[in-house]
Amino acid sequence: MSPFSPVTPPPASTSKARRGWKTARWSLYAPIYDQVAARALKSAHREALATLDLKAGTRVLLLGAGTGLDLPFLPRDIELEVIDASPAMLRRCRERAETLGFDANVKQGDAMALDFPDGYFDVVIAHLIIAVVPEPQAALNEALRVLAHDGELSLLDKGLRGQQPAGVIRRLLNPLARLIATNLSVPLDSLLQEHAVKRLGDRDLGPGGLLRHMHLRKI
Question: What is the pTM of this model?
């Protein structure tokens, strides 16, 4: 029996429209994304990646890489695949990877339908991607599908804990946040419920503890 929970896709026309809008808007945000996000989120990216066991030759997937804000905190001797849906974001990410000296394969791809075989990666980095895709469950399922047994997943996003309700500020801001870019109240524990993973770490990071970092091992 597959360890992955079934995902019922929305109607094709609805799904296509949602994905198209999300990709288009990130192309609009690309020129200013680093100015807005880099300073605020730098420490969260650094602290999350410091938990991973990244040796020379480790096969790593950087999923939904955006402009590559994780890249400065990764060793250069890993085997790195970089995926994002936005061509504009990828252009900036590719430039950053080259500047930092990475020999990385940077390409456009869909986090909800990855073209890698099962168990291909030793490490999957999913930072600030699950909360922005149209189908979070599908993206998380794919991240764990391509992760090897005993591999590590670094999950950093704007997620709630367990059954806790969203706070007043999250509830007030979330409608606008979802329209602009992201869901502030992703139920990460529910998304992981059907998966066999061991939690190696779980803590709040980022401005005001807005982000939740989960360091997971696939078992």
Answer: 0.79
